[in-house]
C-alpha cells in the first residue's frame, strides 16, 4: 500500500496551500495576501452551506467539541472554530500543522493524533480521497465511534471517476496486466509526494455510518475535475 502519509509530509514541505486546493494561485511562487484571503474565504463558503443544510434538515446545532480530520493548514478549521466551543484539527503533515498553528484561534488545538474525546461534530472534506480505502474505512469507523448522541458529520468521499482519468500516468505503474475488467500493476514505483486519488464503496461507508447510529443523511454530489464524490451530512440518533 502506498505510504500517503509520507507523500503529504513532502507536499506540505513544498506546496502547503496548493496541496489543499490545486489552484495555481496558491503555488508558493504565486500566492499573495489577496490569494490567501480567497483561500480562507473558500473554507468559510464550503462549510457555511453544509451547516445550513444540517440545521435546516436536522434542527439547531451548537457543538461543543468538533474535529476536523485532515485539517491541512486550517482552511476549514478556522470556520469551525467560529461555530464550536473547541476544535481539534488533525493532520499527518508537520508542515501543514506548523502553518495552521500560526493562524490558530484560542479555542483550536492542532495535532497529528486523533484525540481520545467525544465530539459533537466530525468534518472531513477532500481528504479521504487521498487515503487508501482499506485504511480509510477503518479511520471513518474509528472517528464516528467518537461521535456524541445528536452529534453531526459533514463527510466527503470520492466514489468514481471519468474514464479519461481512470489510470493517471503518474500513478507509478510501469508494467500492467489487463484482463478486460481490471488492471493490476506488475512493476510499481510510486512517485514521492504525489496526490494519489482513491474511490470508496459508498455502500460500505453507509453501513459504517448506520452502525454508528447515523441513520438519516443528506447526500450532496461533488465533481472535482471528473472525480465524482458525495458529501454526507447528518446527525447521530
TrEMBL record:
Domain Methyltransferase: 67-151
Listed GO MF terms: transferase activity
A Pfam family this chain is assigned to: Methyltransf_25
Keyword Cell membrane recorded: no
Classification via Gene3D superfamilies: Vaccinia Virus protein VP39
Alphabetical UniProt keywords: Transferase
Identification of the protein by name: Methyltransferase domain-containing protein
Record bears the keyword Metal-binding: no
Domain of life the protein comes from: Bacteria
Signal peptide: none
CDD domains to which the protein is assigned, alphabetical: AdoMet_MTases
Amino acid at each position: 500500500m502506498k505510504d500517503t502519509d509520507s507523500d503529504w509530509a513532502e507536499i506540505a514541505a513544498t506546496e502547503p496551500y496548493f496541496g489543499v486546493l490545486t489552484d495555481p494561485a496558491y503555488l508558493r511562487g504565486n500566492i499573495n495576501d489577496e490569494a490567501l484571503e480567497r483561500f480562507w474565504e473558500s473554507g468559510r463558503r464550503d462549510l457555511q452551506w453544509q451547516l445550513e443544510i444540517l440545521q435546516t434538515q436536522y434542527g439547531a446545532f451548537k457543538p461543543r467539541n468538533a474535529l476536523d480530520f485532515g485539517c491541512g493548514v486550517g482552511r476549514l478549521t478556522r470556520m469551525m472554530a467560529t461555530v464550536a466551543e473547541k476544535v481539534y484539527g488533525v493532520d499527518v503533515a508537520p508542515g501543514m500543522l506548523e502553518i495552521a498553528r500560526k493562524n490558530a484561534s484560542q479555542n483550536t488545538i492542532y495535532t497529528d493524533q486523533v484525540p481520545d474525546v467525544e465530539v459533537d461534530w466530525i468534518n472531513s472534506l477532500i481528504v479521504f480521497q487521498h487515503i487508501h480505502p482499506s485504511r480509510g474505512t477503518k479511520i471513518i469507523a474509528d472517528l464516528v465511534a467518537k461521535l456524541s448522541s445528536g452529534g453531526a458529520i459533514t463527510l466527503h468521499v470520492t466514489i468514481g471517476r471519468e474514464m479519461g482519468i481512470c489510470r493517471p500516468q503518474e500513478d507509478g505503474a510501469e508494467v500492467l496486466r489487463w484482463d478486460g475488467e481490471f488492471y493490476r500493476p506488475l512493476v510499481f514505483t510510486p512517485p514521492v509526494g504525489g496526490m494519489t486519488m482513491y474511490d470508496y464503496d459508498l455502500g460500505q461507508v453507509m453501513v459504517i455510518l448506520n452502525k454508528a447510529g447515523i441513520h438519516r443523511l443528506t447526500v450532496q454530489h461533488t465533481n472535482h475535475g471528473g472525480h465524482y464524490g458525495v458529501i454526507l451530512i447528518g446527525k447521530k440518533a
